[in-house]
Give the backbone structure.
Amino acid sequence: MMEAFDILTTASLWAAVLRIATPLIFGVLGALLCERAGVLNLGIEGIMTMGAMVGWLTVFLGADLWTGLAVAALSGALMGLLHAFLTVPLALSQHVSGLGITLFASSLSYYLYRLIVEVGDLPPTIAPFRPLAIPFLSDIPFLGPVLFAQTAPTYLALAAVAVLAYVLNRTPVGLAIRMTGENPHAVEAQGLDPIAIRIGAVVAGSALMAVGGAFLTMAAFNSFFPQMVQGRGWICIALVVFASWRPGKALLGALLFAFFDAYQLRLQNVVEDVPYQLFLMAPYLLSILALILVARRAQVPEALMAPYRRGER
Amino acid sequence: MTAVLELDGITKRFGTLVANDAVSLSLAKGEILALLGENGAGKTTLMNILFGHYTADEGEVHVFGSTLPPGKPRAAIEAGVGMVHQHFTLAGNLTVLDNVVLGSEPLMRLQSQRARARARLAAIAERFGLPVDPDARIGDLSVGERQRVEILKALYRDASILILDEPTAVLARPEAERLFDTLRGMTRGGLSLIFISHKLHEVMAASDRVVVLRGGRNVAERRTADTDPDELAELMVGRRVTRPRRQQHATGAPVVIGTDITVREGGERRLDGVSFQVCEGEILGIVGVSGNGQAALGRLLSGLARPDAGRLTLNGEDMGALGPRALVRAGVGRIPEDRHAEGAVGELPVWENAVLERMGTAEFSSRGFVRRGAARRFAHTLIERFDIRGAAAETRTRLLSGGNMQKLILGRILSAGPRFILANQPTRGLDEGAIAAVHAELLAARAEGAAILLITEELEEAIGLADRMQAIVRGRLSAPVAAEQADSRRLGLMMAGMWERDDAA
């Protein structure tokens, strides 16, 4: 049993937590941005798959890693534009459109992958992002390897939390996004266009989601294969609620889930006689518990999922 | 005087409905213009076109001599037009300052200039006498304060023409009078105002000039000083409609008695120790500004809420624990507040709605099957008896006008010969003709001995129908006042919660 506790003191566990959290952070920020503007984006699972494939493929075809990340973001933005077009000006059901996008984007990704890439016994690989040891800081015992020897996208994710929090809370455009999620009629009455704001937020949010997906193939791993997003998109949707629609708490939620995940992986090795499937299940179970405890106090954007049609109340 | 605003031949169609038909009007500087008309006369549509929420099919809007591009609220705001919407356009979870500042800064600015905005808001609030806490969450403000924020939003954008859509719909009369005092003060500072109303007394009291809309047309313009309420009423309705008056008669034994009833919902006391009784052949009027516990009282008497404390009896037997079905069986008829949401199922045909409450009785079903023939015949008799126009038994109910839908609901209830009727806002949103019909039916039920509890926001309705009245304020009921002692002034004060001093009645 002592071994189970010893894991908690290893730097590798905590470094893994940050690594596992990275795609979740991008995903949850993207979902949060969409929802703050009033649009639920259940296309996230497919958009992350799309980002994972497109980012990897771009690099596989010869581009550098950062270009790959940018192209992945662009592919997510395009999927977001499709979702936004269906749900905002056309005001179709956000659930139906989102699930449709997930199916469409995943299938399209697999299809394009098979079409362009020749897969032998093993999937082809790329040279992924390497951990970026920050001089001096990464030499600090324990904290160094955990915080200062991550890959560049991880730092980008952490920066994105701060940037999104600042934009939402301190800038005029952030206020407009929040207001659109609360009451789009108020936005129109103040002379702004809630439809444009919603489309913009969904496009930007979807780009973030795709970057989260791209992390999987370009940093956490070095190849693409079907089903690799593994429900991370759905976790992000739940984390938004857990975070009560706040970027800071979203980071916390992503780290918490990543901790459960990293810990169970290591527990599998030290605890015998327990089927490993139980451990695999644990993060999800614990997330549901955390969600129940926190989400009852969550402050939902009032106009979330309420379609806005001009001239109607 | 020069016109600051001109509407020129505005026409707006929604499908086959002509909401505005070549309406023209003008507004002079410093003037208060009342736009008077019944529900559906096209007042709000017209103002929404002016502000750019809608695009007109024909016609133009001129502000200070230049033409506004259609369909652009931003252009209207920049031209100096501000609109105070009837359903406030505020975000409840955000602060006053957030709501006011939105849209006033360039969107791509890197930092919102909060300190400057705060100072500016404070200066405007001070200048126009509209004090407000900039950091308060909108959701925590009273309705009157929210309206203040809505007005401040327009003033913050330098509005010189202010449009107010039914500004007093949510205010008690003293609050409304205060609002009009404030507005009057603003016009002395050079502001011009248009307010929408269907209340004759406030049009007479507050406006310089009246434009009457009926069926989407500008049917008359009068200087307020040159007209009177009777003329305006006739212009508004298009014919002389007189509401029936209550005849004095003796009332019988108490039917429904509520004693010290408290109802809590969602952790809040919606009703707080209220007592009332309604006798045979009596109408008890509960007057109050909406949102003061009427909804909870309605649910209590419909079997949808249980008293947490106190006792509610129907003919001496406990009624508090009865659900809707048991109440209907015990002879309670219910006219719900929102006829579309709770009164009738819009997508079902008229005949199904007509028997909905009694579908399970032997009259309309046997062995688990609906007796469609009997139900249709019954619906047909209701249509005849209650003069439900534009309806056959098979008509989908949502196609009925508000007045005819209300007659259907009334017919469903009254045909069962109820001993107690809950009439919750029975004429909300109806035109004068339909109001007169509903009033006549309620008075007929009263004459036959039904006990009726009438919840209303319209003082005139309470005065016309009720034998006794109680005011509802923040979940509490005043002592009853007999109709003879209740005039609109006293009721207005009671609705504002000022009854504690004269509980004598």
